Amino acid sequence: MDITVNDFLKRAVATAEHFGFRSNAHHKGRTECKNCKVPISHTAKVDDRRLDGIYGLLAGGINAYTSSKLHGLDEPVFYYNLEEVPRTGDAAITFHIFNVEKSIAEAILIQTVRSLFNEVGQTNHVVKINSLGDNDSRTRYARELNTFLRKRLNELPPAARELMKEHVTLALSHMIEKNHELALRSPSPLEHLSDTSRRHFREIVEYLDMSETPYEIEPKLLGHYQCFNDAIFSFELQDGLGNSLEEKTLQAQGGRYTSFFEKHLKQTVPAVGAVVILKGKRQPARLPKQGGQNPAIHIIQLGFAPKIRSLLLIDELRREGILVNQNLTSDSLSTQLRQAEETGAKYSIIIGQKEYVDGTVIFRDMIGKNQETIPQSTLVSRLKRVHA
User: Fold this and answer.
1) DSSP labels, 131-200
2) Per the database record, which ranges form the Anticodon-binding domain (predicted)?
3) In angstroms, rounded to a whole number, what is the distance separating the alpha carbons of residues 215 and 209?
4) Per-residue pLDDT tens over the stretch 308-344
């Protein structure tokens, strides 16, 4: 399916906004950012940012964070921007979530990218995913990998031996790229995860299972040691038989890059992002309008499984053309109800553990202050009726 660049960008913006991401202009215009007087800067150069393996577009989130004064926001920040790939000029969109340590951030990103793929007709795809773990996990893994490779120095290609002088994972990445036999026998980072990182990764996999997302756990998906930590993922386009397409219309990669902030900002800022590139289509001079109406419907959830159910509901409502607000990162009912009131929502949809098990939702009239429990299967028709 051929995708025009204007159609791609228009759909990308609509998808981003639907899942709660807001543009650079929106964030810069917020009072907390404009009035923030606390100075902030980073040390990441162009070559540092390119270590993300995605032309520096993902690690470039550190530029967005500092230039837009996002440190003035003491809350989860959902940020997107329309980008141009260096040198090629290909059109791209970047998604970033700051200040969220929980795995729901990766789930939202993967679902957002997947929805965009489906929206532009690229329905045959699989998510490749791996976890590099936290700092302790990566240190243990590097030590184990170093021991493994040093016992087999005679088998290492000269280039890999040279790369080991900088970092052992660079040597492994080189051998993976060259399809070297030793790379297949090397230890996996998944075998060295801390309890915290293992739980984080398990929750992401649970989301993939619950959402019926096609995925493969790929232990050889590494990323640069100075950029990524914990989850890292990519999207692979396939034909109808499940074979990887050689000519890729879209390229999508993402992951958690908190360690990049720690190195170049000297602060711990939970950061996770994704990049989607439309290959071979240059960014147009005129970009689609960003920012739209404030939705009249607010999704509220309580608990991990209800979060995932809510995320899938948000995507279902997107397909039906029903706009929503949400804060899937929150675990507080009172906070979410207050946010629904502050945004002027007319209706809120509440999913707790009981509703998740029963396949129902609580439909709350925010103006009349009354509510009722209804089957989730009837929600779309109900919303279309009251929201017509």
Assistant:
1) E--SHHHHHHHHHHHHHHHHTTGGGS-HHHHHHTTT-HHHHHHHHHHTT-HHHHHSPPGGGG--HHHHHH
2) 315-384
3) 9
4) 999 999 999 999 999 999 999 999 999 999 999 999 9
CA distance 154 to 226: 27
pLDDT digits 0-9 by tens, 249-295: 999 999 999 999 999 998 899 999 999 999 999 988 888 888 767 89
Residue corresponding to tokens 């019926």: 212
Scanning the chain, the segments in alpha helix (DSSP H) are 5-18, 24-28, 31-34, 46-49, 61-67, 104-119, 135-150, 158-163, 168-177, 181-185, 195-210, 258-264, 304-319, 333-342, 353-358, 379-386
5-133+194-282 with 297-386: one CATH topology? Answer: no
The domain made up of 5-133+194-282 has a fold known as BirA Bifunctional Protein; domain 2 (3.30.930)
Provide the residue type at 318 as one letter. R
Q: What b/e sequence results for 160-181 when a residue is b if at least 16 CB atoms lie within 10 Å of its CB, and e otherwise?
A: beebbeebbbbbbbbbbeeebe
Spatial separation of the C-alpha atoms in residues 185 and 126, rounded to whole Å: 24
CB contact set of 180 (below 8 Å; sequence gap of 6+): 157, 160
Evaluate whether 162 touches 149 at the Cβ level (below 8 Å): no
Residues contacting 235, CB < 8 A, separation 6+: 113, 114, 117, 125, 126, 127, 128, 250, 251, 252, 253
Q: Where does residue 353 fall: left (phi above 0), alpha (psi -120 to 50 degrees), or beta otherwise?
A: alpha
Backbone angle region of 129, left / alpha / beta, with phi > 0 → left and psi within -120 to 50 → alpha = beta
Neighbours of 217 (CB within 10 A): 15
Strand partners, 256: 229, 272
Ordered by start, the domain boundaries in the chain are: 5-133+194-282, 135-191, 297-386
What is the assigned CATH class of domain 297-386?
A: alpha beta
Structure tokens given for 343: 């945004």
Per the listing, tokens 């899937």 go with 328
Terminal-residue alpha carbon distance, the chain: 33
Predicted model pTM: 0.95
Helix (H) or strand (E) holding 362: strand 360-365
Strand partners, 274: 95, 254
